[in-house]
Amino acid sequence: MESRVQWNDLQFFVAVCEYGSIGAAAQALGVNHSTVLRRLGSLEQALDVRLFDRLPGGYALTVQGHELASGIAGVSEQLEAAGRRVTGNDLALRGSIRLTAPDTLMQALLMSRLAAFSAEHPQLQLDLVVNDSMLNLTRREADVAVRGSNRPPGNLVGRRVGTIETALYASAAYIETLGPAPGESAYRWIGHAEPLSHLASARWLRENVAPEKVVLRVDSLISLADAVAAGFGVGWLLCPLAEVRPGLVQLRPPPRELDTQVWVLTHPDLRRVARVRALTEFLYETLSADPRLRHDRG
User: Where is the HTH lysR-type domain (predicted)?
Assistant: First the structure.
């Protein structure tokens, strides 16, 4: 009757050759001594040869055992390397990474950093999905997400890299039109359209500003910053967006209740994939030192 060699049996043979004894192989594999002996017996039966001589001082490879060990040398390493390539854990970073982030964070914080990351890893391709919706990382709609949220999704893992502040701004040109020492009652306000109505700044506006004082509503924080810079009126802006627009004046310091935490997130199943880990660690290290974010200590 022809017997077939089982790979599991070969693994036990390789372990005994590598670790030098039955006991050491059993310990490395997390099994008991008798399991190793049974697997070796199964392999010898399948090959119909004796692979080890049972000596008083232990087990020694026979000639056939040496031939088998030589023939399969490197197979274990090749299989491990193949597994790393399949799961993305190969040392060489290749393939694509799908990153999602809102346009505000992409413009204010990310694009220049992603260019630096791409230069470091030329064999990686970045696919950017720029929107405010939380794509389903479980279904691989994205691999990594950078999000502004004080309550990140519980099914994702990641780290907070800092806090993005919001302050009240106007253009210097607009302030000049109000005359000397204008009060806030003279302000024309730029507000939030429905897609931004969930923001804390939008809630503040609803609670503190009469609707007739709102002369413009926009559905994008970038458009809001552009409208303030154009002189429509005053508005609550993310500080990094305001700082890159010349001529804007901060009218109030950033209130803590309008703070938004910034997170680098991925799915638990992806965090050990080498290319995903490389990107998330790069973003964490660089954004954690970014002076445009507030970094609370303690």
Answer: 5-62
